[in-house]
Specification:
By secondary structure, the chain is α/β, with parallel strands linked by helices. The chain has two domains: 343 residues, 3-Layer(aba) Sandwich (Rossmann fold); 94 residues, 2-Layer Sandwich (GMP Synthetase, Chain A, domain 3), CATH 3.30.300.30. Helix content is 33%, strand content 25%. The strands form five sheets. The protein has an eleven-stranded mixed beta sheet, sandwiched between helices. It has a four-stranded mixed beta sheet with strand order 20-19-18-21. A hairpin with a 3-residue loop joins strand 9 and strand 10.
Length: 441
């Protein structure tokens, strides 16, 4: 009886708070992307000082008519530009839109402050629902869920206590904080999973991997959910393999960010469908030209429903491989083949050559003496490796092999420094960084 009441009570709560999103969900299914782009650009031109000036310069709007053919003449918006022109990027009518502040930043660079609003939040919820129901075939809003997350602020906007408990109850969610997990915590989390038998487990890629490794190490059993959704971090291939093996079910990768929310989600065929109705996404090379299918590039996106502070052609700091325009799964949204990480995950040579971050993480695959690691590019010719040893013993031949392979791509004169530590620190929100270039900040 209680379970049957959850969904209608939650929907009533959303409606009373002005946060119901049925209309947005129905609009998302229509995939009217062109109209969404045009509406946002016209609003930005009329109400956002930064874009009013900019669009006049490039003749994007003439006689109140929009020339969308000039869209790619709009300069790329960087985080530095947002910091420098923050006030000019805020819409003149933001106070009428149920606005709130949000923040991003993580472990590198200065945190970024930006404004979102009620409409943006509705589209976030509609996008999540679209993904679960139309791509992976799960009714997420009523399904029993376990959430392995790093920070409660991502869900409860900084609030804990009664509000958090009410949210958990009404959304049928069990929240397990993975900011710092001891073995006792992980043992308790496995008991919780086995007890509540969730249909969905969702969490940070690193947290899911960490608890999977614990289960394997302790040789204990764990309940198999219908699906596992990895989010908030790059899902490495070895992470996916371990999690799927231990839990006995498929892991789906979800790509989003705090600045713009849902961007793309993986389907059963392994491609990531871009939620073009929520964010218009471009994948560009270093000259800001579109990459071809199968090529890696930087992700540039336009958040289509944040009218309080439009982010147009925003370079978010991620890299991805462009996938085919159509997928065999039947969903008509275009795809990414893979999200390859943050720009700071990749290393840079002095000649401008970019070395993919996964090259370095692969060097540590199947190294039984390594408990945890982080590879840091401190300079063009200096790599520091923070490492936690499993049994306080180093496999010297494998260590030398790692050094040689690093020098193979970074140069023979590259200095590799090892630092044995007791723990690899997470970011402020509980995420892991496995590679980090201080030069790419």
């Amino acid at each position: 009886m209680v379970a049957m009441l959850r969904r209608p009570v939650w929907k009533l709560f959303l409606k009373l708070r002005g946060r119901d999103f049925d209309r947005q969900y129905n609009e998302a299914k229509k995939l009217d992307i062109q109209k969404n782009v045009e509406d946002l650009l016209l609003h930005a031109y009329a109400k956002v000082p930064h874009y009013g000036i900019l669009f006049k310069k490039i003749n994007l709007v003439k006689n109140s008519k929009l020339d969308t053919s000039r869209f790619r003449e709009i300069p790329i918006l960087t985080k530095e530009t947002i910091r420098e022109h923050y006030k000019e990027l805020v819409s003149e009518d933001y106070t009428l839109r149920g606005f709130f502040l949000n923040f991003s930043g993580g472990s590198t660079g200065e945190p970024l402050t930006f404004i979102q609003d009620r409409l943006c939040l509705k589209w976030t919820n509609a996008t999540n629902k679209y993904y679960y129901e139309n791509i992976i075939g799960v009714h997420e809003d009523s399904a029993k869920k376990v959430l392995l997350w790093g920070s409660e602020r991502d869900i409860f906007e900084g609030s804990i206590g009664f509000k958090a408990k009410a949210f958990n109850f009404l959304t049928n969610t069990v929240f397990l904080n993975t900011f710092r997990m001891t073995e006792a915590d992980m043992e308790r989390y496995v008991r919780v999973i086995n007890s509540c038998k969730p249909e969905i487990i969702r969490g940070y890629a690193g947290s899911l991997y960490e608890i999977s490794s614990f289960i394997e190490r302790k040789k204990i059993s764990v309940y198999t959910p219908n699906v596992i959704v990895s989010a908030a971090e790059t899902l490495r291939d070895d992470f996916r393999q371990k999690i799927e093996t231990i839990f006995g079910t498929k892991v789906y990768d979800f790509y989003g960010s705090r600045e713009v929310n849902g961007i793309a989600g993986e389907c059963k065929n392994g491609l990531m469908h871009i939620f073009m109705f929520n964010n218009y996404v471009e994948v560009l090379d270093n000259k800001n030209q579109e990459v071809k299918q199968g090529e890696n590039g930087k992700v540039v996106l336009t958040s289509l429903h944040n009218y309080s502070m439009p982010l147009i052609r925003f370079e978010i700091g991620d890299t991805a491989i462009l996938g085919p325009y159509r997928c065999k799964c039947g969903n008509t949204l275009p795809t990414l083949k893979k999200v390859t990480g943050r720009i700071t995950d990749h290393f840079i040579r002095k000649d401008g050559t970019v070395i993919h971050g996964e090259y370095f993480t692969h060097l540590f695959y199947q190294k039984d003496w390594v408990e945890a690691f982080r590879v840091i590019q401190e300079d063009y010719k200096k790599i520091r490796i923070m490492i936690v040893l499993r049994d306080k013993l180093v496999n010297e031949p494998e260590k030398r092999d790692i050094e040689e392979k690093i020098k193979l791509v970074m140069g023979k004169d590259c200095k590799v420094v090892w630092e044995v530590v007791d723990e690899i620190p997470k970011t402020k929100s509980g995420k892991y960084l496995y590679t980090e270039s201080l030069l790419a900040r």
